Amino acid sequence: MTTRRRKTPKVKRRKEATAKRRRRSSAADLQKQLDQRTRELAEALEREMGTSEVLRIISSSPGALQPVFEVMLANATRICEAKFGTLYLSEGDGFRAAAMHNAPSAYAEARRRALIHPHPGTGLWRAATTKQISQIADITTTRPYIKRHPFLIEAVDLGGYRTVLDVPMLKEGELIGVVSIFRQEVSQFTDKQIELVKNFANQAVIAIENTRLLNELRESLQQQTATADVLKVISRSTFDLQAVLDTLIESAVRLCEARFGAMFRLDCELLHLAAHTQNFDEVQLALIRDRFYPMAPNRGHVSGRAVLTGVPVQIPDTLADPGYRGQGAKKAGFRSIVGVPLLREGQAIGVIVIYRTEPGSFSEKQLALLQTFADQAVIAIENVRLFDEIQDKSRQLAEASQHKSQFLANMSHELRTPLNAIIGVSEMLREDAESAKQDTEPLDRVLGAGRHLLALINDILDLSKIEAGRMELQLETFPLAPLIADVVKTIEPLAAKNENRVAVSCDAAIGRLNADQMRLRQALLNLMSNANKFTERGTITVDARQGQQNGRDWVTIAVADTGIGMTAEQMGKLLQEFSQADSSTTRKYGGTGLGLAISKRFCQMMGGDITVESEPGRGSTFTIRLPKIVDAPVAALAQTGEAALKSH
Prior knowledge:
The chain is α+β, with helices and mostly antiparallel strands.
């Protein structure tokens, strides 16, 4: 039988003490882990809050970079336990301090003084040349500092920093700038801190790009608005050139961030002031307008250079250009000037010149915008020139037409008197010959020719009266059916000669018309005569109907034939004065081409018109369309309409 040994109190106490120590050690470790996790969470939360604040500033301040840079630097220096920070933006071959946070005043003043060109070996130089993150644990151990380079010595002495972190700001591999944060003691930044600054640098690049895109959008919108304003002025003031040029020069100066502007036009080989901005004072305006212009183009002035070369010319600084001779511009305080020629078919007809009171070059976008304004100015000038030419030609044509009408009227009156005498004597001789049972055929030919000539003279007289606006309508109320029957009876001999049949259909609902009976009869007789002339062994149909349009009664009288018909080209010139379908019809059928044109004018004077439809070999249909009641005001307007058109 085995006997169990009993533990002594001493051994028991030793084991309990060991277990107690183990529990205390485990609790301490847990507390350390908890504290470390708490610190990590606090740091992560602080980083997230810093990032969120930068993003909030980016979203709430579109187009404003300075608030973004300042908040970013403040969070970077605070979270990374740095003393101060600087954000540099690339500018040419150097850097310019765009923002600082908590920097010593002397250091900040020195850094903002001028463009910075970092010395090789410095952190800023490394970040710029390698496009990689650069951290220098102790700046005083670097070669440039040991060699006592002034740039670095001044920075260290004024800023008192020892450790520096430089993070490049990159956009698609292109260096935009550098974010630098500094500690005044030797203490390297951790990987997490470096990653945080890198994240801030990326956000700064995003903010810069957003601002660039927004500014481009705003510029584009401003340019489009300005262009629309100019085009609106051009459309509203087509013939007010001064208003257009004034708007152009004001828009050009505003959008190109200039102070003053002027436009000069070339006339008789001299440049004349054509427009200028309203902000010129009396002294400046007097120098330009009264003392120096008109001026022959020369290379001593921007306006002259642009006109002579035909390309844009700019002078970044008038005081630094030895070839510039514009004493007036210098006295007026103009330092930078650009001139863009106004070109028409490659030849300069003027120039736009804008001025700034500070030196500096105009951007390519501004030059392109000025070129657009110059093109618009040329369009406006050309429009007015063409309009003036058209006006002048119109006046000349109106005057010539008036002279023609007067001549035709006078000629007609002068010819009618002897012609009526010839016709009268011929009729008497024919009666005598007929009584004596002599041959009357020669006298019939004389009478036919005389009457034909009298009808032609009457047509010419009517046309001259219409063109001169002296034709008067004699409105009266009359039945339509008897008028048509009378015209049909008149053309019966011609219809019989060509073996044509005449058919008439007149809507009884028409009843009576109120119009110029004599002019309507003349137009209808002309249409029916033509229908018979160009038809042989066919049918002439007269169809009169009544209809309504816009609450008004209208009458249409269609005269259709089964004759030779016409092509579309022939119809295009059919209703013009002294014009027929073509020369072959003139030779075969005769005529002057006045009848249809005069008939159309008569119908238009009564508020209606004549239209035609035709097909070669199948005949033609001419349709008179008139209001059933021609109002007196319409007639008055019609008879003066031609004269009104001629006078404008």
